[in-house]
């Protein structure tokens, strides 16, 4: 089957599959390179990485592939909003006691974006991917002058139109089924994220813009790829499906949780980062739900909960990790490489098309 869609032509890839740029140390250079070597687009989730770490990861990716790849960043203000710190700490401190953590008293959010984007340009990364907003105009102009492509994550038609006007080459339309943080631009306008399902969002975005649209949110296999094409998309982006890949650096307890939960196991929550994200329900969420205390805004909540999440990883305790995952958890598999996942998706999609539409 010919997979050479407009998306492939735009990004210089062979098959219309993008591996989501999952921040937090999930997307190892091995994963990114293997996705690209398999013909898709591997993406380094670099939003929390320091510039030097991004540079090192880019060099490692390049040592493993000569194919296009992307680096994903968050486009958001790093405000220090800790006015309600004391009340939030009252919820978090009992968790710290569980892990024997000393309570920190001084917090600040480090604004990494300028240094991160500088490395992306210096290293001539072929594709820049953003979440939470469009790439600022000065960087768009620089990317265009260097022949770099821009991918922007969106969750509404309005955001898609804004992204196209801002210079995006490709739009990823993320339905509310997606795991982790989605790309909603204005969190004040949509405090819980713009929660439009994939089947409703994708065709409306396709009709509203003139650039390739990628479908995301609950897509796990070849059926999702065929459905995305039917809705007018030029390809798919998958995140949750790659979390359990052999090259994923997700914690083993996290992978195990993904394998043993289902479509009813996740919920949208702000308790880990201050921004709505979909993850498996666990004990970390309960104290906030019971207290009624609102988490701090992003990224301040992410900063103050980092010590607990790190301790939980060290102790292999998934009850206090951020277990990001989408609603397609029954379709997660273990023991597969990223290249095997891509091959399986393409094979299943081709069989489905041949069986249903070429009789």
CATH topology-level name? TIM Barrel
For the record, give the distance between the C-alpha atoms at the N and C termini, rounded to a whole number. 16 Å
Number of strands: 11
Average pLDDT rating: 95
Structural class: alpha/beta
**Any low-confidence stretches, pLDDT <50, length ≥5?**
none
Biggest sheet: strands side by side, in what order?
1-9-8-6-5-4-3-2
Question: Rg from C-alpha positions?
Answer: 20 Å
Order of helices and strands: HEHEHEHHEHEHEEHEHEHHEEHHH
Shape: globular
Strand content range: 5-15%
Number of domains: 1
Which CATH-level-2 architecture? Alpha-Beta Barrel
Counting DSSP H or I runs of 4 or more residues, the number of helices is 14
CATH superfamily: Aldolase class I
Question: According to CATH, what is the class?
Answer: Alpha Beta
DSSP helix fraction: 40-55%
Largest sheet: 8 strands, parallel
Structural summary, described in words:
Helices cover 41% and strands 13% of the residues. The chain is α/β, with parallel strands linked by helices. The chain has one domain (6-93, 107-258, 328-357): Aldolase class I (TIM Barrel). The strands form two sheets. Strands 1-9-8-6-5-4-3-2 form an eight-stranded parallel beta sheet. A three-stranded antiparallel beta sheet has the order 7-11-10, with no helix packed on it. Helix 3 packs parallel to helix 5 (113-122) and helix 4 runs parallel beside helix 13 (300-314).
């Amino acid at each position: 089957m010919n997979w050479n869609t407009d998306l492939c032509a735009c990004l210089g890839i062979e098959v219309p599959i993008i591996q989501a740029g999952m921040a937090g140390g999930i997307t190892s250079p091995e994963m990114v390179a293997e996705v690209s070597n398999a013909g898709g687009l591997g993406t380094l989730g670099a939003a929390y990485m320091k510039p030097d770490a991004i540079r090192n990861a880019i060099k490692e990716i390049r040592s493993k592939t000569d194919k296009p790849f992307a680096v994903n960043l968050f486009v958001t203000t790093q405000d220090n909003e800790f006015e309600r710190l004391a009340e939030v700490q009252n919820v978090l401190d009992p968790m710290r006691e569980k892990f024997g953590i000393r309570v920190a008293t001084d917090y600040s959010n480090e604004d990494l974006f300028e240094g991160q984007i500088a490395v992306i340009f210096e290293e001539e990364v072929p594709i820049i991917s953003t979440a939470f907003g469009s790439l600022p105009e000065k960087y768009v102009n620089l990317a265009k002058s260097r022949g770099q492509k821009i991918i922007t994550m969106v969750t509404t038609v309005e955001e898609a139109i804004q992204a196209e006007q801002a210079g995006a080459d490709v739009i990823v339309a993320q339905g509310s089924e997606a795991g982790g943080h989605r790309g909603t631009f204005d969190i004040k306008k949509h405090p819980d994220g713009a929660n439009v399902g994939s089947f409703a969002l994708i065709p409306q975005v396709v009709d509203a813009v003139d650039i390739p649209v990628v479908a995301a949110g609950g897509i796990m296999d070849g059926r999702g790829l065929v459905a995305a094409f039917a809705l007018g998309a030029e390809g798919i982006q998958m995140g949750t499906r790659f979390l359990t890949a052999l090259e994923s650096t997700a914690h083993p307890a996290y992978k195990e949780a993904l394998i043993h939960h289902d479509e009813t196991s996740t919920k949208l929550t702000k308790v880990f980062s201050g921004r709505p994200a979909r993850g498996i329900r666990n004990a970390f969420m309960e104290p906030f739900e019971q207290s009624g205390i609102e988490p701090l805004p992003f990224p301040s909540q992410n900063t103050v909960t980092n010590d607990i999440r790190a301790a939980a990883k060290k102790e292999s305790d998934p009850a206090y990790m951020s277990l990001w995952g989408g609603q397609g958890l029954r379709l997660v598999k273990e023991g597969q490489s990223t290249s095997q996942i891509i091959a399986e998706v393409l094979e299943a999609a081709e069989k489905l098309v041949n069986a249903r539409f070429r009789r």
